[in-house]
Specification:
Elements lengths: L6 H15 L4 H17 L4 H4 L17 H11 L6 H12 L4 H5 L6 E2 L4 E4 L9 E4 L2 H16 L12 E4 L2 E3 L6 H6 L1
Length: 186
């Protein structure tokens, strides 16, 4: 029996073929099939497909660091337009600390210690672990610029967000972080 001999298996093969035709990456397709696999396993039906199904190969390349020239070009481009300033400052912080974008999205004013030049990250990949990150001069300057902006937008209390959520136009809510959609768009 092959993957095409069972109607469900044939449907699975057709689904994979359709997704590939849509230029969807192997990693995404594997995750989608993984959801189906978990559902079928729960009802003890996956064994009918498991023997003939093979995950699609995924790239093993984890990327590379930017060269100094590429980094300079990135920062020059990011700083070239006023409307990109927040993204520029965030990129400086991520390049000079181990903080990721999702972590910085959730930073509150109380998480910043200018005296000790540290940033406390409370929300990240590991929600049970708080990290205290040292800030070098570049990251510290970017944090200071974001603090100025936050104050102008109404973030004044320790529980307010460094990057408040935009409600509409020029109205911001300092009690909420930026939306995931807005963050990704930026």
């Amino acid at each position: 029996m092959t993957l095409h001999d069972v109607p469900v298996a044939r449907s699975l093969a057709d689904y994979i073929k359709k997704r590939k035709a849509e230029n969807i990456g192997n990693r995404t397709i594997n995750m989608e099939v993984g959801v189906l696999r978990r559902v079928l396993k729960k009802y003890k039906l996956w064994n009918r497909l498991a023997e003939d199904y093979r995950r699609l190969p995924e790239p093993m390349d984890i990327g590379r660091a930017l060269s100094p020239e590429e980094e300079l070009k990135l920062f020059q481009t990011a700083s070239s337009r006023a409307e990109w300033s927040v993204v520029f400052w965030i990129s400086l912080i991520t390049a000079n600390t181990t903080a990721g974008g999702i972590e910085l999205r959730n930073v509150r004013l109380g998480d910043i210690d200018l005296k000790n030049q540290t940033l406390t990250v409370r929300v990240g990949k590991n929600r049970f672990r708080t990290r205290i990150l040292p800030l070098n001069q570049t990251a510290l300057r970017a944090i200071e610029r974001l603090l100025e902006r936050a104050k102008d937008l109404g973030s004044t209390k320790p529980e307010h967000y460094l990057i408040p959520s935009r409600v509409s136009g020029k109205e911001y809510d300092p009690t909420q972080p930026p939306s995931r959609w807005g963050w990704r768009t930026a």
